[in-house]
Amino acid sequence: MLYPVYVHIGDKKHAHGMEFPDFPGCFSAADDWEEVNRMAQEAVECHVAGEDAPLPAPTPLEKLARDPKYKGGVWMLVDLDTTRLDPAPKRVNISLPGSLLSQIDEYAEAHHLSRSGFLAKAAQEAMNGK
User: Fold this and answer.
1) Where is 56: in which H helix or E strand?
2) What is the pLDDT of residue 127?
3) Please, what's the b/e burial string for 21-40 (b: 16 or more CB within 10 A of its CB; e: otherwise)?
4) 40, 46 in Cβ contact below 8 A?
5) pLDDT confidence of 106, banded at 50, 70, 90?
6) What's the CATH number of domain 2-84, 3.40.50.1820, 3.20.20.190, 3.90.950.10, 3.30.160.250?
């Protein structure tokens, strides 16, 4: 989904600063223009992590362009992958060997986790290379 990002143009010594009107308090920076979308995605993912609120609808650029607090920079639309921002749990159906499922349940209980919580944590750690 395309979201507006206000970019304060950097120079040889300073990165391009970004702010996200639809995500108050969310800021980022990018050393070059090619990094803007990636850094925007990363910033918004971090900003909404753990939030239960639905994502806001993007504010139309026409409305933002008239806002006097945005001066000296440029507007960009960044394509945020909103599937990576959705905090709502999703029910899935998976098949595991019964013995593995028993081991998972024993481990989860011993560590005060639910089965889902353990599987989610294990998946995140595996994807992050831990």
Assistant:
1) none
2) 83
3) bbbeebebbbeeeeebbebb
4) no
5) very high
6) 3.30.160.250
> Two tokens at 48?
């909404």
For the chain, the domains span 2-84, 98-127
pLDDT recorded at residue 3: 95
Helix axes 98-110, 115-127, angle to 10 degrees: 100
Sole residue written with tokens 């440029």 = 74
* The residue to which tokens 């803007």 are assigned: 36
Residue 7: closest CA among 19, 15, 25, 21: 19
Give the pLDDT confidence of 25-67 residue by residue, as tens digits. 999 999 999 999 999 999 999 998 877 778 899 999 999 988 9
